[in-house]
Design a protein that fits this description.
It is built from five helices and no strands. By secondary structure, the chain is mostly helical.
């Protein structure tokens, strides 16, 4: 999905478009770990609060928080 675009030099708006399309097509779609990191990094770096909120919503809706919780659970 989006990680393929990132590897091929895709721009952020193209990557977000691919993620949104995947969300629209498959309500159960999940981000891969690398994609989750990318979306979270964009949210951290974003200066626009509306954009930051959308990125965090995508991160949560597509399993980013679950991935983080699972990663931390593995540490214990």
């Amino acid at each position: 999905m989006a990680s393929g675009l990132a590897r091929n030099g895709g721009k952020k708006h193209e990557l977000l478009s691919a993620i949104r399309q995947k969300m629209d097509e498959d309500r159960d779609a999940q981000l891969r770990p690398a994609e989750a990191v990318m979306v979270l990094q964009w949210a951290i770096d974003c200066d626009d609060n509306a954009c930051k909120a959308e990125l965090l919503k995508i991160f949560d809706a597509m399993g980013g928080l679950r991935l983080m919780k699972d990663a931390f659970a593995d540490l214990h």
